[in-house]
Every structure is written in C-alpha cells, then in structure tokens.
Amino acid sequence: MKRLSGFYLLAALVVLLPIIFPDNYYVTVVGVTALLHAILAVGLNLLMGYAGQISLGHAAFFGIGAYTSAILTTRYGWDPWAAIVVGIALTGSIAFLVSRPILRLKGHYLAMATLGLGIIANIVLVQAGDFTGGPDGLGDIPTLSLFGWALDTDLRWYWVMGATMLGTVWIALNIIDSRSGRALRALHGSEVAAEMMGINTTATKTGVFVLAALTASLAGSLFSHQQSFISPDSFSFFFSIELVTMVVLGGMASTYGAVFGAVVLTFLPELLVVFEDFEVMIFGAILMLMMIFLPQGIFVGLQTPFRRRLTRRESPIADTPGE
Amino acid sequence: MNIRKTLSTIAAGILLSLAAGQTVAADSIKIGSFLAVTGGASFLGDPELKTLQLYIGEINAGGGVNGKQIELVHYDTGGNPKKSVSFAKRLIQKDKVDLIIGGSTSGSTLAVMPLVDKAGMPFISLAGSVKIIKPVKRWTFKMPHTDAMAAAKIFGDMKRRGISKVALISGSGGFGKSGRTQSLALAPQYGIEIVSDESYGKKDTDMTAQLTKIRDTDAQAILNFGFGTGPAIVTKNVRQLGITLPLYQSHGVASKKYIDLAGDSAEGVRLPAAALLVAEMLPDTDPQKPVLLDYKRKFEAKFGPVSTFGGHAYDGLHIALEAIDRAGSTDKEKVRDQIEKTQGFIGTGGVYNMSPRDHLGLSLDAFKMLEIKNGDWTIVQ
C-alpha cells in the first residue's frame, strides 16, 4: 500500500481535475497534451533514468506508431484498435532489430546512433510521400471509439489519455520494484559489476529499449487519432530532445519525476505566451535556473529534502535514496 | 542570494503578468492568429505578423470597423503543427475569437482544419498547399496562390513558345516535392511531356550530375521547382555545363536574393511571381498597382524590404474585415457566408473572386510571368 501511495495520489489528481474544471482549456486541451507527453517521458525514463542508456531518437518510435495507425486506418480502412496493435508490434520488432547493434555502443556513441535513428525515421516519413503523404502529412484520420462511445470531445480524450498514462506509470513502478528493475539499476551503476552478479545485461538492455519503444508507439497511435492529422514535423529531432529534457528536468530515475517534467514542459510555454516576443527567452532562462539550482531534477530535487525532514522526525536513520 | 526568494520572485512575476493579460477591451472584434514567427519558417510568419499589427493599428486609429475596435490575439507556433492545434483550440475555447487568420505553413493549416470545421470558426489560411482548398472545406479559406497555379502558369508560357518536352528537377523539401507532384499531374493537360524527373537534397552544393543526365535527353526546356539556395546552384550549373535550353524557375525563388546568388547565370530565366515583386513596373491601368504600392510603402517605411508572404496577411485581414462589415455583425455563420461571397477584392495576391466551390478565388492572372534581364525583373507580355 505504502509503496504505491504516490500512484494513488497521482490517480486522484488526474481523475479530480476534469471533474472540478470540466470546461477548462488548461485541463482538457493542454492537459491531454501533458498526459501524452507523460506517457512518453515515463517510457523514456525507464531507458534513460533507470538503465542509463541515452536515446536521442525516441520521436522515431512515437512516429512509427502514429504513422502505422494513420496509414492503416485511412488508406486500408482498418479498425483503429487493430491498427494500434499492429503499430505496437511493428515498432517493437523494429526496436528489437536495431537494439542489438545500437546498444553495444556506450555514451556519446550511443547518443549519436540513436540520433541517427531518429533522423533516418524522419527522412523516411518525408521522402516516402506516396505512402506517408510526405511533408504535407496525412489527414482525415478517424477518431477512436470505445464500446460505441466515440472519442469526439476533448474531455473524452482526457479520460482515455489519463487512463493510459496511469496504466503506464503503474507498469513502470512495478517493473522498477521487480527483479528486472533491480537489474536495470545495477546496469546503470556498472555494467561490468552487473554482469558479475549474473545479470544478462544484453537481454535487460534490449528489453527496456523495446519496452520504451512500445510505450512510445502506443502514445503515437493515440496521438494520431486524437489530432486526426499528422505530419513529419511532429516527429522531428527536436521532439526527441524535448522528451529528453522532460526526463532530465523532472529528475532522472524517478517515474513521478518524468510525469512532473512532462507536465511542467507542456504548461510552461502555454503560460509564457503572455510575454509575447520574450517567451522563448524566458522559457530558456527558467530551464537554466532550474538546472542550476536543482541539478538532480525539479521533482527529485524538491522531494529529497522534504523526505529527509520527514524521516528524521520519525527515526534517526535516514532513508536510502532511491525510487 | 537566497534561492527560494529568487524563485518566488520569478513566480510572482509570472502570476502578475498572467493577471495583466486578462484585461480585454469591451465589445471589440477579436481576430485570432497563430503564425510561425520563430523557427525555420519565420520568414513566413514574421512579415505576416508585422503586417497584421501594422494594419490593425492603423484601422483602430481610424475608428475601427462598424465603430468597433479590432483586437489581435496572437500566438507563435514556431512552425510546429502540434502547437498550432493547441493554440487554435485556445483561440476558439479560451479567447473566444470571432475569426482566425493564420497557419503560416501548410502543415499547421492542415492540422487545424478538422478543428475549425467542427467548431464552426471562419479560418483564413496563409499557407500554400493546394490540399487546403481541394476539396473545399466549409470553414477554411486561403490567400496565397497554389503551386499548381505556378505550374499551370509555367506550362502555359512553355506552350506559347512551342515547348513540348520538359526536364523536371526539384528540391527534396516540402515546397519542391509538392511542386513536382503538381507539375507531373498538370503537364499532360498542356500537352507537355516530362522527359526527365530529377531531384536534389536540401544541402547539395552541386547539381551537375543531374543536369548532365538532363543534357542527354531531348528536353526543350528545364523546369526547377525549389526553394532557398538550391535553385541558384541549379541556375549556375546549367550555364556552366553550357546548356542553352530555356530555364524556368518557380515562384519559390521570387526574391532579389536569387538574382544576387545566381549572378549572370540568371539572365533569361523565367518564373511566375506575384505582382508585388514588380509593383513599380506594372502599367498604370493595372487595378492592383495602387494597392501594391501603398502596401509596399507602408511596410517598408517601418520594417524594411517587403515580401509576398506579408502581403497574404494583408489580403486575409482586409477580406475578413470587409466580410464582417458586410455581415454587420461577428456572427460566425454570417461572416463565413460573406467571406465566401467576396467578389472583386483587389489584394496584393491578385483579384479575389470567391465562391462556394472556390475558397481561394484567384485566377492564373494573379501570377505575372517574369524574365530576368540585366540583373532585374521584367514582365513578359
């Protein structure tokens, strides 16, 4: 119970917000985008935060999912749900195939390889015009329907996106606390030491890479049905960087941190529009200040002293940092 | 320095300015806009926003429309379609604007079209793609010429010169690709055969390989659809290879920069372009001339060299305001009907005659066929 108390708090927040503010732009429009980003960030955090493997090409998997859904439903008249499953299967296979050679690399070389992957995926989306619609994108993507309940309002999308996000967080939390989660963290600490302890590092790394890709693919499919129009611009290198920023900003190796980072990075630009010409500058300045004063991420940075104070009151022995 | 104090000062600053942003003038016409003012497409969004601000300021100083002041609510999308969707929703749901002018890039426009259709919001797009108005969507209108029109204008000119075999070379960017598709589709209608179809990458610095292949075909002319430095390199390479075939460029190079880059090689190159580029050279009988000169003078007095993109914003704003004036209210249904009934509006892009079947309303006359002579534009009669 105590282990998942943070999760129940998050779930309560997600459920209560639209009930209290059912028609609020920040909840039903920006909120949906924030939830989508949170799904992606939580997935990426498993790879980056826990396993310590950087990926600068995460938008590629997001894009493959989105385009598979879009192409199968618009060009071949598939059922959207079947398309989502095929998208996930396809993304998973691609991730599995590239993970073997890519994950042999470390540090800067891994960053470069994943960067290349993201750029290649984007070039394919632009150049395979007959299939993907090219730079102009693909339109008229049908919306999803759930038991005859068409997802045609922002509020309904909020519920679906919220449920998916909570599901992703729940799965992530359980993985981290399982045997393979401990293997991931061992891997992050030292790959050699992890191997000495009998952990199959290759299988663990491949597994988490594929898992992160699957989450991104699901998010991509939802995104394409929600927007009903997609173009390669939404899956560019810059979006990959944005996702990495979310994970780092919230705090690496913290699932709630990833959610928090996604929410902050989605809302900040929306709130800063009042500054008009200066919004981008102020946005940059805020990010810089946060990283200078809270280098371990906002969520983790604010949580640690708070928790230490709590535990000090309860028992003299400090809690080991983790989670 | 106390960190907590610094952070709380910043937070207070944000909250204060948020509160300040809420004040809204009573009973005004609210025009919403989302443009790519920053980012890779800022060459589109920047003059568009400046034009909107310039003219809205001027109209407000002169008493507004129907005695109402105009208020501009603007967001910068950075050319990102996802942000465009979110800002369009914000304009519709939160700011409750009466009309939207925006969408600098085709991607941004196409992404918000399902949205404005559902919300019943009149939307005037400033983006190029022909997909925006074909098929016609009830609530979306568009100001700029399409690439299909450019291709048609070029093929028309070729036909007059007795050219029937054309080599096509296009850039791999969005503009070049779309132009290529439209050219391939339109050529048969003009009895023109595309004998070669080459392409080059965005950052290529030499196109002699593609052009050597073209030289070996029986093409009678070369058509280059592209944007940026690519077309200037193609132009130079064509002359370096000693190819004497007529060279046609698209409206994508319609700026002085192209002539500067291509230098002497640009002599004799033909291209379709909006009349704004050659405003001074138009005959005095041309009804567009006073409009063009006036826009050019006002824009250049404040911001420097004029571009056709800012002109699209001028056209969109005036068509919208005239429609609101005719409708006598900001009722969205009525305003939409009136925009659709726009007849004989003389703008910077041409003379607009809209109808339920045509939400652009420009004819091929809106493009002028230009030829470069002595390092300057001349109008081909």
Describe the structure.
- The complex is a heterodimer of chains A (323) and B (381).
- Chain A has one domain (5-238).
- Chain A contains 15 helices and 2 strands.
- Chain A has helices at residues 5-20, 25-28, 30-50, 58-75, 80-102, 107-127, 129-132, 154-176, 179-189, 191-196, 201-227, 237-250, 255-272, 279-293, 298-314; strands at residues 145-146, 149-150.
- In chain A, strands 1-2 form a two-stranded antiparallel ribbon.
- In chain A, α12 crosses α13 (255-272).
- Chain A is globular, with a radius of gyration of 20 Å.
- In chain B, α3 packs parallel to α4 (106-119), α5 crosses α6 and α8 (230-240) runs parallel beside α9 (256-262).
- Residues 18-25 of chain B have low confidence and may be disordered.
- With 381 residues, chain B is α/β, with parallel strands linked by helices.
- Chain B has 2 domains: 27-146 and 292-364, Rossmann fold, CATH 3.40.50.2300; 148-279 and 367-379, Rossmann fold.
- Chain B is built from 12 helices and 14 strands.
- The chains are: A mainly alpha (323), B alpha/beta (381).
- Chain A binds chain B through residues 25, 29-30, 33, 126-127, 129, 134-137, 139-140, 154, 227-231, 233-234, 269-276, 279-280, 286, 289, 293, and chain B through 3, 6-7, 10, 14, 17-18, 20-21, 38, 74-76, 79-83, 85-86, 89-90, 93-94, 106-107, 110-111, 113-114, 129, 131, 172-174, 177-178, 181.
Summarize the structure.
The complex is a heterodimer of chains A (323) and B (381). Chain A is an all-alpha fold and 323 residues long.
